[in-house]
């Protein structure tokens, strides 16, 4: 049996969210419908953006989960990613800091979903 993990992020506007995530990830969607768009992140991992499941998602509502983008390259690469996202106007919730597992920062997409950038294990 082939297994894939799909992380689903609920958004108000899937095409707009796909443009946002595509810009951050530097990739194009692998599958698109008007309300459901996925990105192939590699063997067994996909990121899905799904609209229409909840009405009027608000960035003000507290979130209890996050999408974590694990990157290679250590602190220099993480800081460079932070600077790049900051220059694009991405909402930064917490600047780079040591969280016990390494340097990390926390951002949010336009719908308020949390995005953590951390070192790859």
TrEMBL record:
Residues 1-120 form the VOC domain. It comes from the Bacteria. InterPro entries: Glyas_Bleomycin-R_OHBP_Dase (IPR029068), Glyas_Fos-R_dOase_dom (IPR004360), Glyoxalase/dOase/EhpR (IPR026275), VOC_core (IPR037523). Gene3D superfamilies: 3.30.720.110, 3.30.720.120. Pfam families: Glyoxalase. Coiled coil: none annotated. This is Glyoxalase. It comes from Streptomyces cyaneochromogenes. The lineage of its organism: Bacteria, Bacillati, Actinomycetota, Actinomycetes, Kitasatosporales.
């Amino acid at each position: 049996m082939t297994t894939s993990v799909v992380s689903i992020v609920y958004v108000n506007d899937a095409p707009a969210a796909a443009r946002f995530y595509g810009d951050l990830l530097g990739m194009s969607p692998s599958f698109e419908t008007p309300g459901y768009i996925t990105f192939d992140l590699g063997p067994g991992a996909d990121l899905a953006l799904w609209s229409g499941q909840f009405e009027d998602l608000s960035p003000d509502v507290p979130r209890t989960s996050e999408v974590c983008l694990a990157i290679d390259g250590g602190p220099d690469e993480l800081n460079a990613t932070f600077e790049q996202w900051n220059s694009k106007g991405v909402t930064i919730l917490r600047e780079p800091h040591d969280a016990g597992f390494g340097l990390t920062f926390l951002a949010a997409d336009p719908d308020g979903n949390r995005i953590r950038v951390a070192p790859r294990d």
